[in-house]
């Protein structure tokens, strides 16, 4: 096992860094992904395990830009996913390309959207 100069394993150091990052994000009051029902996403195993998601989309859609349908499951050990950035400037919750909703839900959308921000609401 590799050990840092401070005597921590690299895994322990990664967890410490993530905890500090989470504290910073919480301070900034970024919205959480309270629910995701997209079961074929690699980050979804009993909830979204991505550290943060981005929302994009065209023509009035609000796709989850972090959706990835690989055979492997991944992400963090815990479910604390945040909304990192959102390109849907036409959403009532969007201010300066940041989401101001208290939390968002992700699920299947209309058309070709596999993963869609269900909290999206056109201005
Ligand atoms: S609620 Fe609106 S601003 Fe927030 S992530 Fe969804 S589309 Fe973007």
Task: Explain what this protein looks like in three dimensions.
By secondary structure, the chain is an alpha/beta fold. The chain has one domain. It is 15% helix and 20% strand. The chain has one helix and seven strands. The protein has a three-stranded mixed β-sheet with strand order 1-6-7, with no helix packed on it. The chain has a two-stranded parallel sheet with strand order 2-3. A two-stranded antiparallel ribbon has the order 4-5. The radius of gyration is 16 Å and the shape is globular. The mean pLDDT is 85. Bound molecules: iron/sulfur cluster. Iron/sulfur cluster is lined by residues 55, 62, 83, 86, 88, 91, 93-94, 99, 101, 104, 117, 119-120. This is DUF1540 domain-containing protein. It comes from Rhodococcus rhodnii LMG 5362. Residues 36-67, 86-114 form the DUF1540 domain.
Any descriptors?
single chain; 123 residues; alpha/beta; three-stranded mixed β-sheet; two-stranded parallel ribbon; 1 helix; 7 strands; 15% helix; globular; binds iron/sulfur cluster; DUF1540 domain-containing protein
SSE layout and pairing:
Elements: H1 10-27, E1 32-36, E2 52-55, E3 82-86, E4 94-95, E5 98-99, E6 103-107, E7 116-117
Parallel strand pairs: 1-6, 2-3
Antiparallel strand pairs: 4-5, 6-7
Bound molecules: iron/sulfur cluster.
